[in-house]
């Protein structure tokens, strides 16, 4: 699980809880009276239950569910994920407040509540790139809540219905890979998401009062990220070259063991001759010297 500051920072100047202002009609407590048009969305691994959301965003939610699972490898679990619920926002103890929940408009989903709980201490197992993807497709993340418990399970749509087609097109691109989806948080392509998140934020882009002597924060971030990416690429290239050299050496050793070089018959014959001569020479007895016979004093 990642720490809170590892996730995309809260975009500035963003208002959530704007469903009524965006002309989505009435929420709690009048949501059931106005009967919002709902549609069921069935995530990949939901054999029994479905998630109900506004019909206008149903396809968008469905594509984002699929991209979350397929592109990021994050399993959305049955029994821990919900959508529409005509209720108010709940306090930390589960008691209703006086504020309508975005769930009462059918504009919010909660994903894997057991591992992304709503509490004062931040805890989430969402892959880092999932948050900017949902944000780019129109959803505010509950992990950005301030002055209230963290709610990392929660994603709420904060745009009018007219914005849905554009966000749906983006979601489809994430699903097919045009935005280079990550398979895990260690993927080097996470750099793209870091820069993408910075570009979505207005405040870091401008330096103070347009001072030309003050480095632009966005330029600094991109420069640092580019340098880090180059170092990682160089290290990867060196590692690949070393691996290729090791593979070539292993192949040569294997071939040498399977096909030893032929013996030179002339060399072998000369070597055997030297060995035989050496053996024969060592086995030949030394000649014995005979002592001269002593005379007996008579002439022959």
Short description:
By secondary structure, the protein is mainly α. The chain is built from 7 helices and 7 strands, in the order αββαβββαββαααα. Mean pLDDT is 79; it is low at 180-185, 200-214 and 293-300.
Helices, strands, pairings?
Blueprint: H1 31-34, E1 38-41, E2 51-54, H2 58-70, E3 88-90, E4 96-100, E5 108-110, H3 130-136, E6 139-141, E7 154-157, H4 164-176, H5 190-199, H6 217-258, H7 265-283
Q: Determine the N-to-C terminus distance.
A: 123 Å
Proportion of beta-strand residues: 5-15%
Instruction: Describe the strand arrangement of the main beta sheet, using strand numbers.
Output: 5-7-6
| Element pattern in H and E | HEEHEEEHEEHHHH
The chain-level structural class is mainly alpha
Written account of the structure:
- The chain has a domain at 4-182: Muramoyl-pentapeptide Carboxypeptidase, domain 2 (2-Layer Sandwich), CATH 3.30.1380.
- It has helices spanning 31-34, 58-70, 130-136, 164-176, 190-199, 217-258, 265-283; strands at 38-41, 51-54, 88-90, 96-100, 108-110, 139-141, 154-157.
- The protein is 36% helix and 9% strand.
- Strands 5-7-6 form a three-stranded antiparallel sheet. The protein has a two-stranded antiparallel ribbon with strand order 1-2.
- With 300 residues, the chain is mainly alpha-helical.
């Amino acid at each position: 699980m990642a720490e809170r500051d590892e996730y995309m920072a809260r975009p500035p100047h963003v208002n959530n809880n704007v469903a009524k202002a965006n002309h989505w009609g009435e929420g709690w407590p009048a949501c059931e009276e106005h009967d919002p048009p709902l549609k069921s969305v069935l995530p990949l691994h939901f054999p029994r239950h479905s998630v109900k959301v506004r019909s206008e965003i149903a396809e968008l939610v469905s594509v984002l569910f699929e991209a979350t699972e397929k592109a990021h490898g994050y399993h959305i679990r049955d029994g821990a994920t919900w959508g529409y619920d005509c209720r108010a926002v709940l306090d930390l103890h589960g008691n209703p407040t006086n504020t309508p929940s975005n769930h009462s408009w059918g504009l919010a989903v909660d994903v894997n509540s057991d591992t992304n709980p709503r509490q004062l201490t931040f805890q989430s197992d969402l892959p880092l790139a999932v948050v900017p993807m949902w944000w780019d497709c129109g959803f505010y993340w509950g992990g950005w809540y301030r002055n209230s418990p963290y709610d990392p399970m929660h994603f709420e749509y904060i745009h009018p219905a007219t914005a849905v087609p554009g966000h749906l097109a983006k979601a489809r691109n994430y699903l097919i890979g045009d935005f280079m989806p990550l398979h895990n948080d260690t993927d080097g392509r996470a750099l793209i998401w870091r820069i993408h998140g910075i570009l979505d934020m207005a405040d870091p882009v401008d330096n103070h009062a347009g001072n030309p002597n003050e480095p632009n924060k966005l330029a600094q971030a991109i420069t640092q990220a580019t340098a880090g990416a180059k170092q990682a690429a160089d290290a990867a290239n060196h590692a690949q070259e070393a691996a290729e050299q090791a593979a070539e050496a292993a192949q040569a050793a294997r071939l040498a063991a399977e096909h030893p070089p032929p013996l030179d018959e002339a060399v072998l014959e000369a070597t055997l001759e030297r060995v035989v001569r050496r053996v024969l020479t060592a086995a030949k007895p030394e000649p014995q010297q005979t002592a001269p016979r002593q005379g007996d004093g008579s002439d022959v």
